[in-house]
Design goal:
By secondary structure, this protein is mainly alpha-helical. About 75% of the residues lie in helices and about 0% in strands. The protein is elongated. It starts with a helix and ends in a 6-residue tail after the last helix.
């Protein structure tokens, strides 16, 4: 019973995270970069993983800028999945 407040807080936080499908490719790249920047600062990911993810997100950014939103979204999802980040 004492875990119910914790579960309720987690559910509230999860509902506050926007779904990937609801974000434009520009928004989603910024969102993922914010997460990996924080993860690097706290040591959750190493510099090599961070560098690879940034490289992948840069490629997604190029696709996004050229109007290829679906390709950009796919590239973002692929790098998230490849490096253990949940794809929403």
């Amino acid at each position: 019973m004492r875990f119910l407040p914790v579960l309720a807080a987690l559910a509230l936080c999860a509902s506050a995270v926007p779904a990937a499908a609801a974000m434009s490719c520009h928004e989603r790249i910024g969102y993922v970069r914010t997460i990996i920047d924080k993860d690097l600062k706290v040591g959750f990911i190493g510099k090599e993983v961070y560098a690879q993810m940034v490289k992948d997100l840069d490629a997604a950014g190029i696709a996004c800028q050229s109007g290829q939103d679906a390709k950009a979204q796919l590239l973002i999802s692929a790098t998230q999945s490849r490096h253990g980040y949940p794809v929403r």
